[in-house]
């Protein structure tokens, strides 16, 4: 279970296991950049970058969940994303939250 809130209705937090995170650093390929440049000329959604962003966020989320599982958690609360450009064309995406063990209230 995951939530952006700091509690889960119907559950109580039995143990807080600390911050867990998933970090992914991605660069755009030359071909992807060329394709996206063509899409910008036409206007609208730049689907090549949208797909890259979605895949990157999903990978960061999955890595965070794996870290939570390794810590013994059965839920992550306060889930957040952050992104930073490390250098031109290279972006870091971070997904983080607090790993907890919850029980039915």
From TrEMBL:
InterPro entries: UPF0145_dom_sf (IPR035439), UPF0145_YbjQ-like (IPR002765). It holds the Pfam family YbjQ_1. Coiled coil: none annotated. SUPFAM superfamilies: YbjQ-like (SSF117782). Belongs to the UPF0145 family. PANTHER family: UPF0145 PROTEIN SCO3412 (PTHR34068:SF2), UPF0145 PROTEIN YBJQ (PTHR34068). This is UPF0145 protein HKW67_20240.
């Amino acid at each position: 279970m995951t939530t952006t809130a700091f509690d889960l209705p119907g559950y109580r937090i039995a143990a807080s296991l600390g911050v867990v995170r998933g970090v992914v650093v991605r660069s755009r390929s030359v071909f992807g950049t060329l394709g996206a440049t063509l899409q910008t000329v036409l206007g609208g959604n730049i689907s090549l970058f949208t797909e890259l962003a979605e895949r990157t966020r999903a990978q960061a989320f999955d890595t965070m969940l794996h870290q939570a599982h390794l810590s013994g958690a059965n839920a992550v609360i306060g889930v957040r994303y952050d992104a930073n450009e490390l250098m031109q064309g290279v972006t870091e995406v971070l997904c983080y939250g607090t790993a907890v063990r919850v029980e039915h209230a």
